[in-house]
């Protein structure tokens, strides 16, 4: 479409853009005018402004999901060692042997970080 500016819909807003949006919205600019000025979609401007008015900050959270438990490196090594010693051991057996509250996903993550794959035998159909 000639005459239309290409907007960057899917890229993250930089800190500078966020500060510009907040400054213009604080100065009571309309959302469409702010979006045209910073070359972003109106939806991105609305989301940035909503985040600012709700939380008082324009920075994104560092991550999503549950906070990770602090496990010692010894416990992490123990998980991997058990899988190396007995390739048929299950995650629930590892969890019981480690002795601390640890979820299955954590065990799987440690095993994949150590490049340990499933030792399930391959079934060949004829």
Structure report:
The longest helix has 14 residues, at 42-55. It contains six helices and no strands. It has helices at 15-26, 31-38, 42-55, 73-85, 91-98, 104-113. The model has no long low-confidence stretch (mean pLDDT 78). Helices cover 52% and strands 0% of the residues. The protein is mostly helical and 126 residues long. It comes from Trichonephila clavipes. This is Transposable element Tc1 transposase.
* Termini separation: 58 Å
Number of helices: 6
Shape: elongated
Strand content: under 5%
Rg from Cα: 25 Å
Largest sheet at a glance?
A: none
Helix content: 40-55%
Mean pLDDT: 78
Give a concise summary.
This protein is mainly alpha-helical. It contains six helices and no strands.
State the main characteristics.
126 residues, mainly alpha, 6 helices, 0% strand
Topology:
Elements: H1 15-26, H2 31-38, H3 42-55, H4 73-85, H5 91-98, H6 104-113
Helix pairs in contact: 1-2, 1-3, 2-3
């Amino acid at each position: 479409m000639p005459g239309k500016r290409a907007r960057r819909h899917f890229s993250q807003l930089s800190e500078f853009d966020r500060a510009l949006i907040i400054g213009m919205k604080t100065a009571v600019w309309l959302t469409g005018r702010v979006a045209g000025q910073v070359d972003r979609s109106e939806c991105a401007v609305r989301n940035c402004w909503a985040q600012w008015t709700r939380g008082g900050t324009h920075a994104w959270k560092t991550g999503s999901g549950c906070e990770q438990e602090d496990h010692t490196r010894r416990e992490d090594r123990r998980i991997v060692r058990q899988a190396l010693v007995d390739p048929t051991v299950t995650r629930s057996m590892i969890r019981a042997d480690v002795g601390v509250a640890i979820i299955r996903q954590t065990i799987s993550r440690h095993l994949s970080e150590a490049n340990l794959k499933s030792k399930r035998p391959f079934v060949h159909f004829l």
